[in-house]
């Protein structure tokens, strides 16, 4: 398991909650570790295979969606790395070489079903992202049409949900419309692909950047860290759903007496093992390949 990286030959640009990003000549080397975060805290434990699953799923999904939207992926081939970097053999299956892009200061969330923070907001105000919805929706119900809700990107602390009007004030009206339209296209395509594999894509977070005045799909693509996945054959509206994503860890932490202000408690071994199993199962369903 890889908790952190030290590539001495390269300049470390950032160490996020899960990914370490290095400068690789004119490109970026993004390494996905086995770190896990929840409620804006990085937990003490690592999750076996997590980084490999996130990286390989992103590569897979970037490749199958590139006909819809250009992305920042250049390659993920270990043999194409510079010789002095290939000595770090743990990089295999957990890195991407990507184009540099200027990230937009927002996160784009597409919601096909009412769950999570959207369900909590709806119960309080009958709104989602500030938009009023029809009364009488039940938990996990499918929307007639997917809903776009943006949020800010916080370097520290919590991201904050904002309205579409607020997004327009931040990045401009024209770019906002482009982002909304491409987010809907990407979500709709992946929701159909996954549904055919027996998975419901309940919601997902996407990020975009600008390179040479062009919009690019960046960061990660439809992973268990950025999305909510449910089993199609177990789905029942009006109930909480069995998750194939990071919600499993969130649910465990919420079941403890943790106050969500202090450092979170350690995860028991069985929670770590089950989380690893969930991530690997999601990878197997999507790619028809097993990780062991």
UniProtKB/TrEMBL annotation:
CDD domains: SAICAR_synt_Sc. Its EC number is 6.3.2.6. This is Phosphoribosylaminoimidazole-succinocarboxamide synthase. Pathway: Purine metabolism; IMP biosynthesis via de novo pathway; 5-amino-1-(5-phospho-D-ribosyl)imidazole-4-carboxamide from 5-amino-1-(5-phospho-D-ribosyl)imidazole-4-carboxylate: step 1/2. Keywords: ATP-binding, Ligase, Nucleotide-binding, Purine biosynthesis. NCBIfam families: PRK13961.1, purC. InterPro entries: SAICAR_synt/ADE2_N, SAICAR_synth. GO terms for molecular function: ATP binding; phosphoribosylaminoimidazolesuccinocarboxamide synthase activity. Pfam families: SAICAR_synt. It catalyses: 5-amino-1-(5-phospho-D-ribosyl)imidazole-4-carboxylate + L-aspartate + ATP = (2S)-2-[5-amino-1-(5-phospho-beta-D-ribosyl)imidazole-4-carboxamido]succinate + ADP + phosphate + 2 H(+). Residues 13-262 form the SAICAR synthetase/ADE2 N-terminal domain. One of its GO terms (biological process) is 'de novo' IMP biosynthetic process. Belongs to the SAICAR synthetase family. GO terms for cellular component: cytoplasm.
